[in-house]
Design a protein that fits this description.
It is a single chain. It contains 10 helices and 8 strands. It is α/β, with parallel strands linked by helices and about 280 residues long. Strands 1, 2, 3, 4, 5, 6, 7 and 8 form an 8-stranded mixed sheet that branches. Helix 1 crosses helix 2 and helix 2 packs antiparallel against helix 9. The longest helix is centred in the N-terminal third of the chain and has 21 residues. The radius of gyration is 18 Å and the shape is globular.
């Protein structure tokens, strides 16, 4: 559901909508990255997941590193200067606008998330270079029309020029019943030729038992986690041209330095595609 899209801290009382007694995926991710924006419930479930997958912190960082590699290549090789980052998560170092504006200070970025605690820290996402611009929408992936029609998006991005849609580690939080593919297709349809989509998605393809145990643990914590197969991830790219090397384990997507000895050590598929 969409709530107060475009609002920023100070616009309303956040304490009424942040439940720190229940674990939340964004705050658990922050915990695995070594951040400070997490609470006891997040740390308890985060530690339980770490017991099941001892490399979960490394996996979180590998997904973050993919963001950096993808953004840099989109700017330098695809000529992208506009980004729509949906499922932003809690601000941490290496945010999309930081990476993009290091490559070209004129880059513009719109962030979208529906977690009130992300909203509470949204000003960290608005620290743009003078030549560029950033905006934050408090909105939900499941309502793409509200995202695309929001004035702040239209004021920040020119949808007649190529845009990179960033969907990193967010679709795994949307149940099949909520039709994630339909929502992604609606966002992609609104972007012009030459636009790109970068996507990473947790999978059980590499270790079904471990990931299955995590799904059960997060379900007990009233959280949704939907690992998807490579074929299911590929369906999100339908109609767009996959860039090399295609859909691969996240560690194998244009790694910095030597290729990883075991690219399946991080249980994510990743890929980038261009709109014809």
């Amino acid at each position: 559901m969409t709530q107060d899209a475009g609002a920023l801290p100070g616009d309303r009382d956040e304490s009424a909508v942040i439940d720190t007694t229940v674990a939340h995926s964004a705050r658990m991710y922050d915990y695995w990255l070594g951040g400070m924006t997490n609470f006891a419930a997040d740390r308890r479930l985060g530690a339980a997941v770490e017991d099941l997958i001892p490399t979960i912190r490394t996996m979180a960082w590998e997904n973050r590193r993919f963001l950096g590699r993808a953004v840099r290549r989109l700017v330098r090789q695809e000529g992208i200067r506009q980004f729509l980052d949906v499922g932003t998560g809690i601000p941490t170092r290496g945010n999309t606008h930081e990476v993009a504006q290091q490559a070209d200070p004129s880059c513009r970025v719109v962030y979208v998330d529906n977690d009130p605690i992300v909203l509470a820290h949204a000003r960290a996402l608005l620290d743009s270079t003078p030549a560029g611009r950033t905006a934050y929408l408090h909105a939900d992936l499941r309502e793409p029309g509200a995202i695309l029609g929001h004035p702040a998006l239209r004021e920040t991005l020119d949808l007649d020029r190529p845009v990179a849609l960033m969907l990193l580690g967010v679709l795994m939080l949307v149940a099949d019943a909520d039709r994630p593919r339909d929502h992604v297709q609606e966002l992609m349809a609104a972007l012009p030729s030459g636009s790109c989509v970068a996507l990473s998605h947790v999978t059980a393809d590499f270790d079904p038992a471990a990931v299955g145990a995590v799904v059960d643990a997060e379900g007990e914590g009233r959280m949704v986690l939907v690992p998807r197969t490579r074929a299911e991830v590929a369906a999100f790219f339908d109609g767009w041209e996959l860039l090399e090397p295609g859909i691969v384990p996240v560690m194998a997507w244009h790694p910095d330095g030597e290729p990883p000895a075991d690219p399946q050590a991080a249980y994510y598929w990743a890929g980038v595609a261009r709109k014809p």
